[in-house]
Every structure is written in C-alpha cells, then in structure tokens.
Amino acid sequence: MLGPSSINDLELAKQFLEANPDIETIEVLLPDINGVLRGKWLPRDNLLKAFKGGLKLPVTTLNFDIWGRDAPGVAFDDGDADGICIPVASSLSRVPWTDRPMGQMFVHMADLDEQPFIGDPRVVLDSIVEKFKALGLKPVVAIELEFYLLEEKRDNTGRPVHAGCDANADYPIGGQPYSLDLMQEYQEAFHEMREACETLGVPVDTLVKEFAPAQYEINLHHEDDPCSAADHAMMLKRVIKSVARRHDLNASFMAKPFGDMAGNGMHVHFSILDEAGHNIFNNETEEGSEALLHAIAGVQSTMVETMAIYAPNFNSYRRFQPGSYAPMAPTWGYENRTVALRIPSDDFAATRIEHRVSGADANPYLVLASILAGAYEGLTKKLQPTAAMEGDAYSQAQSSLPVYWPDSLNAFERSKFVRTHLGEVFQRSYLAAKRQELDEFRHTVTRMEYDAYLLAF
C-alpha cells in the first residue's frame, strides 16, 4: 500500500547519488489525470530532502485539463493547497537521452499528513489492488501501446505527415502490417528505444509494424504489480517520444490522428493469481473457469460507466467505427479480435482477458483501475456474462457503448460504481476537467465548417 517514504527508500536514494556523481538535476514526474507528466526539476542536493517529505506541488497539478488549465470548482475548494510528493523509490534512474546527465523519478501525491491523496490516479489504482489483496488475490497485467511516427512538420492544412517510405505516396494504400523491412528503416531509433528501456528497467517485449502507414506497436511484459505496470507504460511513452525527437521525428499516441486510417489502441491483458500463485481463470479447459466468466461479466457490466476513462478525449471517439477493431459494444469471445474482451488462445496456465477498448491516449493508471474494479465487481457478486461471440461481433451486436463524449461523461457522472471504487473526489475532479475541455471544443469553429457553410448560405 502506498505511504510515506521508508528508511529503505532513503537508502536507495543515497545509493543512487553515490552511483551517479555526475547527475546534477533530477526530474520529478507526476502523472496527472490525463496521463500527462507534470513536475519540476530538483537539484541534486534536494533529493534526500524529497524522500523526507520536503517536496511539494499544488494538489490541483493532478487536475489540469489537457491545456494545463485549472478545472472550475476544483482549484479553489481547498484554497489551492499544496500536497506532498512522495517519491517512488524504485523508479529512480538516469535519463538515457539527455545531453547533460540527469536523473528522474515518479512521485505520487499525498496530503500534508503524508496520507495518499485519493484524487491521484496512482493512488486510485493502488486502492483497487488493495481490494484484491484483501481477498488473497493478485492481478497480473500487461499493456500494449500503438503509436505513429510522424514528420516534425505538418502539411499546409495542419494535418500530420507520416514518416517513412511506406507513406511516401500521396495516397498510401495499406500500412504493410508486420513488415520487417519497414522496421529496418528506423532501426537506429528503435534500437535506441530498446536500450533506453533496458537502462530504465522498462520490460519491453515485442515491436511490430501495425496496420496504418508509419504505425507501430510495442508490448510490455506481464507484471504482478499493476502500479509498476502503469509506471512502465508511462515511461515507455516517454522513451518513444523522447528518442523520436532525437531522430527528428514526432511520435504520437493520439487515438485517431487520421480519420481514414487505423487508430492507436491500448490493449490490456490481465489474469488474477491466488495466494498459491495459481491463475484463477485456469481450470485446465479451453473455456476457462467460473472466475473467468465472473470477471468478464464485471468488466462488461461497468464498461459504459467507465468509457470516459477508456476514451478520455474529444478525438478518442473517432476510433469507434464498425470494422475498425475498436469495439462498439461490451462483447466478448474466444480468440476473436472483433469483440471488446478477447480470450486469447494460449496455454491453460496463461488464460487471460484482453481488454481492447482503450485508446493509447488514455491514462494507464485509470484504465487499469477501471478494468480491475470491474473484474472485482464481477468476482465478488458472481456476475454472469452474455454469450460469447463467434465471428464478426460488429454485425451481431447492437452498438451500445457511448460513441459521443458527452454521453460517456454523463454515464460516468451518474455511476455509483465509479463513485464507490474510483472515489467521489476523483469522479468530481475528472468530470470538471473533461467538461471544461468539451466546452472548448464546442466553442471552436473548425476549418471543415467554414469550407462547408461559410459561402453556402
């Protein structure tokens, strides 16, 4: 359970300073509700002070909207008070891509009594993990992230430009998925990303070329610490974006950068272990156990209410189109990529659920918290799922997930499940920030509207 830094944490900080005498500055990384890293640069001499509770930031740093603005009704409720930033000692490391030696570490927010602040996404996830621990259970998770490599400059309409030879045509047809030749094109950047992950202890698995031009996917290993897995997903994004810039490229995890091409997803694989280390989804059959069915049902039944987490931005909802591999209903099935919850074919011991709803723009802490809270609900209430889908789920299941942002925010606001498991404080602050963003988009007239209407009427 999260709490103040311990003596062991302080010793780790001392060892880090001794092992890295050339580092003068440490970047403090606080993931906000959007999954954007906020923080500050910390002089070397202040690192140990931070491990003794001496590092502060306003609590509202967590609740900025995507443009970094305070959300209405949140900033001044407590006088815009400071919170204490508690270092995550295991994340303390060198930054591999900077010209001058630097360190970095994640922090989570606590109140002035050093108790975890319940509006911090990392704390929200930790609270769900603790619920499983009380049942003698341990979730195991793995995250897959899709992204685009783009040229630094946009075209004359403001549209991003694909990087690489597979996008040189004016109208590229297909993205050559799983092409080895195309991955060779940026091999130096990809090797640098892998080496940076090794330095940072980020457990990367495979790299593949994805469906759209200049689109790729990097997978992370399964971990039995969901908070660590979310940390690693955040760090993987940072590695990819930072190394891409060193190679005069931009990397984007935007959910749908191109309306006519594949979107970027964040797929989450998860299983649950009991105290003996046995996967409770495994009963030595292809169908899996009753616990598997209960977990599927719980995630199914809460998917509408948590859609605002899985699709957190205005652009996120452009992913959800028939036949797009982004699900339109809370369906499930065995070895079926047209459903929301896929049960991959594997060894019985590796029986797991793949959650295919989230965009790569979502906050990994909140995605994991929402998925695991749904599974917890299903397991504790012994819920039963709908029938497993066979074949094309798009043609069989009526679209029932919110595909418009206001609808998902309304469902999130009404949700007793969200209030119970993710917390009322978080629910209120998240809604305030997201509704402020929505209002901004509502007030902005787009170029397409001018082209359609300005001279027509």
Written overview of the protein:
Helix content is 34%, strand content 18%. It contains 14 helices and 14 strands. The strands form two sheets. Strands 7, 8, 9, 10, 11, 12, 13 and 14 form an eight-stranded mixed β-sheet that branches. A hairpin with a 5-residue loop joins strand 8 and strand 9. The longest helix has 21 residues, at 226-246. The mean pLDDT is 92.
Average pLDDT works out at 92
Termini, distance in Å?
A: 61 Å
Q: Kindly name the structural category.
A: alpha+beta
What gyration radius follows from the Cα positions, in whole Å? 22 Å
Q: Can you give the helix content as a percent range?
A: 25-40%
User: Would you list the SSEs in sequence order as H and E?
Assistant: HEEHEEEEHEHHEEHEEHHEEEHHHHHH
Q: Sheet bearing the most strands, described?
A: 8 strands, mixed
β-sheet strand percentage: 15-25%
Shape: globular
**Uncertain ranges:** none
Total of helices: 14
What is the total tally of β strands? 14
Could you list some keywords that capture this structure?
457 residues, alpha+beta, six-stranded mixed sheet, 14 strands, ligase activity, magnesium, Gln_synth_cat_dom, Gln_synth_gly_rich_site, Gln_synt_N_sf
Summarize the structure.
GO terms for molecular function: ligase activity. By secondary structure, the chain is of the alpha+beta class.
Detail the topology: elements first, then pairings.
Blueprint: H1 7-19, E1 25-31, E2 37-43, H2 47-50, E3 56-58, E4 82-87, E5 93-94, E6 102-110, H3 121-134, E7 138-151, H4 180-185, H5 187-200, E8 204-209, E9 215-220, H6 226-246, E10 249-252, E11 266-273, H7 290-301, H8 307-310, E12 332-334, E13 341-343, E14 353-355, H9 364-381, H10 393-396, H11 405-414, H12 416-421, H13 424-443, H14 447-454
Parallel strand pairs: 1-6, 12-13
Antiparallel strand pairs: 1-2, 3-4, 4-6, 5-6, 7-9, 7-10, 7-11, 8-9, 11-14, 13-14
Helix pairs in contact: 3-9, 5-6, 7-9, 11-13
